[in-house]
Amino acid sequence: MVALRAQEDGLSRRLPANPARLRVLWCVAWVVAAASTAVWWLQVRDGLLQPEGLGQWQFAWPEHLWWALLAFVVPVGAAWSLTDLPRVQQALQVALRMGLIAVIAVALAGPRSRQQTPRGVQIIHLVDRSASVPDVMLRQAGAAILADGKAMQADPELRVDVVRFDRQARRLPWPPTATDAAELAGPDLSRDAKTGLSSDLESALNTAVGLVDEGRIVHAVIWSDGIETDGDATELVGSLAAIGVRVHTPKREKSPVAAEFLVERFEVPPKIRSNLPFEAAVHVRATAPATVACSVDGKSIKHLNRTIAVRPGTHRIVLGKLRIRDGGTHQLRVQCKLAEGSDRFAGNNAMRTSVVVHARPRLLYIEGARGQSLYLTRALADDYEVQTRPPDALPRTIGELRRYSAIILSDVARISRAGVPQLTDGDMRNLHAYARAGGGLLVIGGEDSLGSGGYQGTYLDKHVLPVRVEIESEIQQPTIAMVLCIDRSGSMQGTKIELAKEAARATAEALGHDDKIGIFAFDNVTRAVVRLQRAGNRYRIATDIGRLTAGGGTNIYPCLQQAYDALNTAAARVKHVILLSDGKAPRAGIDGLVHQMRRSGMTVTSVGVGAEVDRSLLEAIADRGGGRSYFTDRPETLPRIFVRETKEVSGESVVEKRFRVRRAPGSGRVDMLKGVDLPNAPILLGYLPSKVKPGAHEILRTSTNAPLLVRWRQGLGKVTVWTSDLKNRWAHHWINWPDYAVFARQLIRDLLQEEIGTRVAVAVHRDRSRLRIAVDAVDEDDQFLRDLHGVAKITVPSGDVRRVPLPEVALGRYETSAPLDQVGPYEVRVELRANKGAKPLAIGEATAVHPYPDEYRIASADSTALPGIVKATGGVSGAVAADWRDNRGKTWMRWQWRWPDLVKLALLLLLMDVTLRRIRLGRVTSRSWYDRR
Q1: 90 pLDDT band (50/70/90 cuts)?
Q2: Cα 849 to Cα 318, 334, 413, 428, 801, distances in angstroms
Q3: What is the pLDDT of residue 70?
């Protein structure tokens, strides 16, 4: 009891002597804590506090610094302490506890300090292991990578990555897991036989971009010759520069350049005819002097061999003439073997291509004029096999005729001059049957052909030919009544009127004895010079014409009216008026009168002489009157014009006069005339009169509107008539014309019904691993072919046919592409249709050859793409290890967290506080350190 009382007395002595003071201290401490909490809450809620810093220091969450105010609660709480430790020890405990709270509050605020550290280096080695890369470069790359691996072990800030690539890019497992530098092994850079035939640097750079470590200085070292067969590395220059990747090309070890020889192109003509020789040549390239032996072989051809010495550079070697007898597609192979010299790749010394040989159709050419067949035969020889025979050797059976694709009858008379039949009625029927079965028949005019050859009214005339022979025998010639209206105005005085009278006399002489002629002369009025009478009264007619004189004005209408009245009552099968004038006249009533004359079966021809003539009036009269119009500045030609017109009307069997070829109205587009400069064609000197039958297609006519080229279909075949000749008489000027052979060949091609159509040019070129196909579709009138359904049929080297859509990408421009995944020749046929089911409106063909992998198409010079990439990214050409290990003195600023150090300090303070609680540093005190009694 005594001890307990003594303890209570000791406690009572340690109680504060002034309770009021303690209460004040307690309230102040809680007010400070409450105010601090309120301020902290408001600032956190409103976001008033931001990270604060001082110099190189910064607090991430400065709002937590308010917790440090709680340290002031510690001395208040010490007033109730029951410890009897010495006052100094008690004061030290209060200081430790206040410091502990302050350190924890500062740690919660996230203190950090700013530090400058060197930036690390990342090296990415890109190693090309395609076939074109020399072995010495691969060995050099392996050694450099091994050295960088060893340096990486010594420098933890160095990182090394390895990407190998050919057709594909792949990151190698580098660095290895070995810790001993002596155990490091070089990366696997061996070539792959399948993927090593391509090189895709773009894919390798894409892989390198994915390996970039942010915060490091990145160097990409490219071990390659820069020859890209796939992709385009230049597309990534912008991306590499943006992320700071510097691209280097290493300094190469000096080594001798391996000699290389390759075949670049096999040259053959674009169009080859069967059994016709053509020249074959090969284009080769060499990087060193060599002696090569080149040969061409293929099925059904004679082998060619040639040995030649070549120097560095490109050469064209002519191998000689080839001849392929059979039509169709043939495979040709050219190979060059080195007799002397070295060659790195043997796979690029041969090339295979396909050629289309057009079988030459057989033609039977029957020429009636001996020795005149060479002109047409020579023009057709390149495209056709022409067999020439005389008329009496024409095959007599349909079976023999069918051996030929087309038959040509040129100047063949029905009966020879000796009276022997040359083309019987049975022959004509056989020719008809031959044409209906699909054969082609071409009948060419001449002195003894058509009307002049005795075919009037024959089976050939009635049933086979597309024209009707108009000229009948002399007994059956129609009676003619002709009226001449001659201008005798004052402007005709002198030479004009005299030549007009001579032309009138020549016209009377040209008419038949029983034909009728009338002559009216007009100025302001019309006078009858020769009333309509028989042309046999030649003396009286010539006398009356001689009295004709000039004087007065010009009025055409009364003269045409009297001509109409005279002919209207005349008994004649042909009624014709020739109007001659040299000036202008009133037009009133002329048009209606000419129409009335035409309805009455009369025809009117106009002749204008001199520069003052009213051409439009005379042309209108001739056009409405169904005749012809002539104009001349030379009066001396008037007699010839009148005689020509008289013969035209009277209907001679042979018309020998100069004329030019014109397109017939409504003939439209004709493929046989494509490429023929018809407007500049020379003159022809004669033709045979004829008349186009209903249903026939008139293509060309003479300048006098007589039929010249007419065709029609007979069953499955065609029959074509050319009313002039194609040899050295009427076509004397044509046989030396450059387009003569073109016209003759296309005339036969049309007979054979070969599809010419709209041909479009197909452009085919290689774009790395794809075949690009482009077509500009333009017709012969230079109009774009728009909104068509296009398809490209591609025959690949394996023989498979791929159909690729050919869309329209611009006005008349169609483009597409296809993979170039096989080695050998590619054949492209383009077809453009209005819709999928329609016939082709335009077609075109082209070929391309992918002879061998592009890795074999190398030379002494590397690609120019790599230097551009190196320059654009700030790299070094010819770099060494020091260049790609350099961090360029770059450092980077980073914040280092300091709260772990404060936590450690707080733990130390806590340990010291706990220690002071368990030990006594002095003697026992019975009073609190703040007791002031």
Answers
A1: confident
A2: 19, 13, 54, 51, 16
A3: 78
Rounded Cα distance, 125 and 219, in Å: 8
Number of H helices, E strands in the chain: 21, 43
Where in the chain are all domains bearing CATH 2.60.40.1930?
A: 758-851
Both tokens assigned to 316: 């064209």
The two structure tokens encoding residue 691:
């008349």
* Separation in Å, CA 509 to CA 539, 647, 652: 10, 11, 15
Residue 710 has pLDDT above 90, yes or no: yes
Fold assignment, 758-851? Immunoglobulin-like (2.60.40)
Could you give the percent of the chain with pLDDT greater than 90? Answer: 11
Instruction: Summarize pLDDT for 416-434 with one digit per residue, the tens.
Output: 654 456 788 889 999 999 9
CA distances from 593 to 194, 272, 518, 579 (A): 91, 63, 19, 14
SS (H, E, C) 832-874: EECCCCCCCCEEEEEEEEECCCHHHCCCCCCCCHHHHHHHHHC
CA dist., res. 423 & res. 429, Å (int): 10
Alpha-carbon distances of 319 from 292, 347, 614, rounded to whole Å: 12, 21, 68
CATH topology of domain 362-474+659-751: Rossmann fold (3.40.50)
- Cα 297 to Cα 276, 339, 903, distances in angstroms: 17, 19, 90
Homologous superfamily (CATH) for 478-650: von Willebrand factor, type A domain (3.40.50.410)
Give the C-alpha separation, 705 to 300, whole Å. 52
CA 605-610-612 angle, to 5 degrees, is: 100
> Which tokens in the block code for residue 854?
């592009």
Looking at residue 792, its pLDDT comes to 92
Superfamily assignment of 120-256+861-889 in CATH? von Willebrand factor, type A domain (3.40.50.410)
Class of domain 261-358: mainly beta
DSSP assignment of 440-501 equals: EEEEE--TTSGGGGT-TTSHIIIII-SEE-----GGGPPPEEEEEEEE-SGGGTTHHHHHHH
What would the two tokens of residue 629 be? 């119009």
- Residues carrying CATH 3.40.50.410, the chain: 120-256+861-889, 478-650
Average pLDDT over residues 467-494: 72
